[in-house]
């Protein structure tokens, strides 16, 4: 089975056209829907196709191949077949030349919503050999050895790798920010509730905010700004595909947060002792104005274990968590980062937005360390290379 779950964590940003020597060509295009997986594909509608490969688009953030399929009337129509993100596919050992123009394949997959001739492949079989293509290897990463968290000379914990080593923070343990309760709230990995009646368990919404949240849920998050390459401010930046990393610069009094998915932008957390600004004076932005300080955690080395970050000054142009949680310019976040060991980051966020919620509330998750690897290059622009003529293989 292809990397379906990973694809559902990734968002779509479509606006494609094809240019040939200055002439517009009427080529079959993937569904133009800047949407997440659930808004693009209907897992209740399955399709089986057999046809000849006519084109391969192995580009960020979604890889496609296209096949000519003869329908029951004998008419040949071209279908777009999505197979996942190239980074994930390559990590599983698949490459662009794993499939070639002229290959005949059988495909089973989830049909796109609407009338588009597009599917997300759950099975791709090469007819001449019977080989299954683009399947996950199911090889588990070896569990990293239990080690204490690395520390700076002054004793406080490092949020990044130890000197001379590399690594980054990978997959979060939760798919969305939910108020901490005794029982989990069932949802998929896009943050879509299994039962919309559970909305009251997610957060203490103001009436208008609950209505907006439920609308976003019912519409399968189709209006999500992140899928249009806008930055994922707030807690959501720690749930993006392909991880994140901290670049600590104590000599400059700041920490940079770099994202492995979405736009190539960053957040700055100032740790130089400056006070938080006034909410009506700061420039509204996607990541807000963040100031942080370290607090002790009782470790034997006497260092500081928890980074406390105070953030205000957010704009309203983004969704601050998966699943469509609303917020206003009054949003005030208090985040806590701690690293009890090398392989675990604990993240906790307290949300205080009196215009959207009836009281402050807190949620969080853990994130696992990915050792000995760097974040790979990733571009948000949907398959931009496909908008220009390339040499066919």
Structure description:
The protein folds into two domains: 4-139, Nucleic acid-binding proteins (OB fold (Dihydrolipoamide Acetyltransferase, E2P)); 167-371, no CATH class. The model is unreliable at 11-29 and 384-393 (pLDDT under 50). Helix content is 8%, strand content 33%. It has a nine-stranded mixed beta sheet, with no helix packed on it. The chain has a five-stranded mixed β-barrel with strand order 3-4-5-7-6. Strands 1-2 form a two-stranded antiparallel sheet. The protein is built from five helices and 17 strands.
Name the structural class.
mainly beta
Indicate the mean pLDDT: 86
- Please count the helical segments: 5
Radius of gyration, whole Å: 23 Å
Detail the topology: elements first, then pairings.
Blueprint: H1 4-9, E1 19-20, E2 23-24, H2 37-40, E3 41-57, E4 63-70, E5 76-84, H3 86-91, E6 104-112, E7 118-126, E8 132-133, E9 167-172, H4 199-202, H5 207-218, E10 244-249, E11 254-259, E12 266-270, E13 289-296, E14 304-312, E15 332-341, E16 344-352, E17 361-371
Parallel strand pairs: 5-7, 12-13
Antiparallel strand pairs: 1-2, 3-4, 3-6, 4-5, 6-7, 7-8, 9-17, 10-11, 11-12, 13-14, 14-15, 15-16, 16-17
């Amino acid at each position: 089975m292809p990397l379906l779950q990973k694809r559902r964590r990734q968002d779509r940003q479509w606006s494609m056209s094809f240019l040939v020597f200055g002439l517009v060509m009427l080529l079959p295009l993937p569904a133009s829907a800047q949407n997440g997986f659930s808004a693009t594909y209907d897992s209740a509608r399955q399709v089986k196709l057999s046809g000849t490969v006519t084109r391969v688009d192995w580009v960020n953030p979604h890889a496609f191949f296209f096949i000519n399929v003869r329908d029951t009337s004998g008419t040949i129509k071209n279908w777009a077949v999505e197979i996942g993100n190239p980074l994930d596919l390559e990590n599983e050992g698949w490459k662009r030349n794993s499939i070639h123009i002229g290959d005949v394949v059988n495909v089973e997959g989830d049909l796109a919503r609407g009338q588009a001739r597009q599917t997300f492949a759950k099975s791709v079989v090469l007819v001449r050999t019977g080989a299954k293509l683009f399947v996950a290897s199911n090889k588990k990463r070896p569990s990293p050895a239990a080690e204490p968290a690395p520390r700076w000379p002054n004793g406080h914990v490092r949020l990044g790798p130890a000197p001379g080593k590399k690594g980054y923070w990978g997959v979060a343990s939760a798919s969305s920010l939910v108020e901490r309760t005794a029982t989990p709230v069932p949802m998929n990995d896009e943050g879509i509730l299994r039962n919309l009646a559970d909305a009251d368990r997610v957060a203490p919404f103001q009436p208008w905010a609950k209505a907006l949240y439920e609308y976003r849920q019912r519409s399968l998050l189709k209006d999500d700004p992140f899928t249009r390459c806008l930055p994922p401010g707030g807690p959501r930046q720690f749930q993006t595909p392909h991880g994140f990393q901290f670049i600590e610069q104590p000599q400059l009094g700041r920490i940079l947060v770099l994202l492995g998915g979405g736009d190539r932008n960053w957040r700055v957390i100032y740790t130089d002792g400056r006070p938080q600004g006034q909410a009506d004076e700061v420039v509204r932005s996607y990541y807000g104005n963040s100031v942080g300080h370290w607090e002790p955690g009782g470790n034997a080395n006497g260092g500081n274990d928890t980074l406390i970050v105070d953030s205000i000054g957010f704009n309203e142009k983004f969704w601050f968590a998966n699943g469509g949680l609303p917020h206003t310019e009054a949003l005030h976040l208090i985040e806590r980062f701690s690293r009890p060991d090398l392989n675990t980051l604990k993240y906790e966020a307290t949300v205080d937005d009196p215009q959207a919620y009836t009281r402050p509330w807190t949620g969080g998750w853990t994130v696992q360390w990915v050792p000995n690897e760097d974040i790979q290059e990733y571009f948000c622009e949907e398959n931009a290379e496909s908008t220009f003529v390339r040499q066919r293989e």
